Structures are given as C-alpha cells and as structure tokens.
Amino acid sequence: MKIRKILISQPKPATGKSPYYDLQDKYGVEVVFRPFVKVEGLTAREFRQSRIQIPDYSAIIFTSRTAIDHFFRMCEETRYKVPETLKYFCISETIALYLQKYTVYRKRKIFFSETGKIDGLIPMFHKHCKETYLMPVSDAHDSKASVLDTNNIKYTEAIMYRTVSNDFTPEEKMDYDMLIFFSPAGVKSLVSNFPDFEQGDIAIGGLGAATLKAIEEAGLRIDVQTSPDVTSMSAAVDLYLKKLTKK
What we know:
Elements: E1 5-8, H1 19-27, E2 30-33, E3 37-41, H2 44-48, E4 59-62, H3 65-77, E5 87-90, H4 93-98, E6 109-112, H5 122-127, E7 133-138, H6 145-150, E8 155-165, E9 178-181, H7 184-193, E10 203-206, H8 209-217, H9 233-246
Parallel strand pairs: 1-2, 1-9, 4-5, 4-7, 5-6, 7-8, 9-10
Antiparallel strand pairs: 3-8
C-alpha cells in the first residue's frame, strides 16, 4: 500500500501552517483539507422554541470558540444586551482569551480550567454555587453532563448551532488513499455523500472515542488513531506513514 493523497476533514488553515503540511514535505504526499461538515447557527426563531431565556442565567460555560461566536450572535439576534456582570467559565485559557473578540477581557469575570478540560472548572463552580449556568452547544456535541452531574452542578445546555453535512459535487472524486475524521458527523457525511463507498486499501483514521465508534458502525476499518503515547492526530498519521516507508 502506498499513500499518495490524504484528505484531512477540517477547514484549510488560515495561516498556511499545519503539522499536516510538514508531513506533506516529509513523505512527499499530497494533503487536502476538505471538511465533510460545516457549522450553521440556529435562527433566533428556532432558538426561542427551546423556551430558554438567556437573561435567566448569570454565568456561561464555554467549551469552544464556536460556542462563543454563536452565543454572542444569538444575543444580538434576540436583542439581549449582555450585562457586564455576566460571568464566563471556559475549559481553557485559549478559549477564555477568545472572549476578547466580544468583550473587554480585563473588565469581566472570566475563569478558565488549567487542565484544558471541564473537570478543571469544578472547584470554581462550587465556589460560585449560586450562579445559574448556561452552556451553549451544538446539536451533535459530546455532552459534558456526566462530569457536571456527578459534581451536582446545575446547568442548562442550550443548542445554538448545528453541524450539517457538506455536499460534494458530482465532479469531486473520492481519490484519496487516506481519510482522517474528527467527528461522528464527518463519518456520517462520507456515507451520505458516497453511499456506494468501499474502503478497500484506503486508510481511515479518527480522533476521539465517538468518532472511532462512528467509523466502526459505518462498517469501516480503523487504521490510524491516537494513543496514550501518540496524543495528536498528526503524530498518529506520521507514525503510520513512517511504518509504511519501512516495509
């Protein structure tokens, strides 16, 4: 088996830099960034059907920059003026700093997890136990409910955006030797766009337990995945390509 062309099911990096481009130079393969899915926001009318009233909440839990974008978009579309007293709890410092796009960072009460995971926020949740928490999410999110419920944190998940399949044109060929997925929705999009898809010698990789499960449920073979020793998807692809070159 020889890998010549790899599809990375993510948007093309805006900066032109990516560890996948390094693999392209290292192994002489062609790397193509082509998302199988895209994110679109719910309309204000759709959101109102959930009967969730944003003003009822005194604190917001953010698990991604996308959640931040759609929260402030929804506030604008529902004509809700975000108060300066609103508190923000983010699962990482990177996500917390992204709030600067919408608010004056130093003047707001912003907290973030040191671990990059939601469980790192638990002590802060307990310290601010009187807050009412709202967590903006997508319709296909990995629920953080187990961690929050176990620690008796009262919160409400609010779906503000959805993940939908990206349509492929008839001219687009599935002429890749490796496909890398990052969400179950991406795998479902592959099956939807190419109902007659047969894996054959095509190597398939997935990041995360939910994605790997979706690959298996689609009847496909998993060739590339992360491990405790290989924690990033690009490193897992690198290891796979390295093994092929030795054969």
